[in-house]
Design goal:
Layout (H helix, E strand, L loop, with lengths): L3 H15 L3 H11 E9 L2 E4 L1 H14 L4 E4 L4 E3 L2 E9 L5 E11 L5 E8 L10
Parallel strand pairs: 1-7
Antiparallel strand pairs: 1-2, 3-5, 4-5, 5-6, 6-7
Length: 127
């Protein structure tokens, strides 16, 4: 099940990852990110809009020419969303894929995004 509110929030969030101008990136996050929202993935954590804007800017500085793209639709229910993404290297190759899980606040802004890198690990035998 998808939600138009979730789609709008994720679209603005995805655009923020691509935006190289700091003020424009922050303006996008003002549209879609809760003031005290929490972003967390295996290598980083940011609390609040400005911290996330800075985190995104740091990613861009560390990996110039790379981009994060949302590559699936937004699946959502009961105020939660999930969507797939990929990190595209400057040469166009896919460097990493993953999935994000998010939670929306009552106004439709993302209040939490938890990212996972790569495919799910294989199940280990019990015992």
């Amino acid at each position: 099940m998808t939600t138009s509110v979730g789609n709008r929030a994720v679209d603005a969030y995805a655009q923020a990852w691509l935006e190289t101008d700091a003020a424009a990136r922050r303006a996008l996050l003002d549209q879609c990110w809760a003031e005290d929202g929490v972003y967390c993935d295996p290598i980083g954590r940011a609390v609040g809009r400005q911290a996330l804007a800075d985190h995104m800017g740091g990613f861009q500085a560390e990996q110039p020419g790379a981009r994060v793209e949302v590559v699936t639709g937004v699946d959502g229910h009961d105020g939660y969303v999930r969507f797939g993404w990929r990190l595209v290297a400057p040469d166009g190759s896919v460097a990493l894929e993953g999935i994000d899980f998010g939670e929306l606040d009552s106004g439709g802004a993302l209040r939490r995004v938890i990212g996972f890198f790569g495919p799910l690990p294989p199940r280990e035998p019990a015992g």
